[in-house]
Design brief:
Largest sheet: 7 strands, mixed
Number of helices: 7
Structural class: alpha/beta
Radius of gyration: 15 Å
CATH topology: Pyruvate-ferredoxin Oxidoreductase, domain 3
Shape: globular
Strand order of the largest sheet: 2-3-1-4-5-6-7
Number of strands: 7
CATH architecture: 3-Layer(aba) Sandwich
Strand content: 15-25%
Number of domains: 1
Length: 186
């Protein structure tokens, strides 16, 4: 990674762990001695309401303190959110990572985009199979690491195990690795 600030925008719904994913990604960066920021943007604070969370990671000091308007990566935890808010600010260089069983062409058509590097993983199915619940945030972190190399896979699994102790932590760390293996670039 260069001295550029790497910016990630997460889209999810309240209760799906989008902000937790943002925090865990930032913590992994901090553990690698990088500079980080992580913060949410909430609408009505209720389960199921759309939320956005942001992460910045850089080798150098981060002096910007605003939302992320032209992200390097957009991560979509809930495919029902695919729409204008997800497409906003996506540039030619932006990577899009989506929890879906749909094709890349279907995703880009819904968003009205073309020629965007898009990665897909059926994180919902992976989470149900491994955790017994459709909580996709840790699976999406594995996908982010594979698509970007912004932090090391070991750094993410370590912070996941620290955040979720015991059996739940181990299962979530395995989910990170499984999504890392299964995410596909379209």
């Amino acid at each position: 990674m260069t001295h550029k600030i790497f910016e990630v925008r997460f889209h999810g719904r309240g209760g799906q762990g989008a902000w937790t994913a943002s925090l865990l990604l930032a913590q992994a960066g901090l553990n690698e001695e990088k500079n980080i920021q992580s913060f949410p943007a909430f609408g009505p604070e209720r389960a199921g309401a759309p939320i956005t969370a942001f992460t910045r990671i850089s080798e150098s000091k981060i002096q910007i303190h605003s939302s992320i308007y032209e992200p390097d990566v957009v991560v979509v935890l809930d495919p029902t959110l695919l729409g204008p808010a997800v497409a906003e600010g996506i540039q030619e260089k932006t990577k899009l990572i989506v929890n879906t069983d749909k094709s890349v062409n279907e995703i880009l058509d819904v968003l009205g985009l073309k020629d965007i590097e898009t990665w897909t993983v059926d994180a919902t199915t992976l989470a149900i199979n491994m955790l017994g619940r459709p909580i996709t945030n840790t699976a999406m972190l594995g996908s982010v690491v594979k698509a970007t190399d912004v932090v090391k896979l070991d750094s993410i699994t370590q912070v996941v195990k620290e955040r979720f102790e015991g059996k739940i932590g181990e299962l979530n760390a395995e989910l990170v690795k499984k999504a890392y293996e299964e995410v596909k670039q379209g």
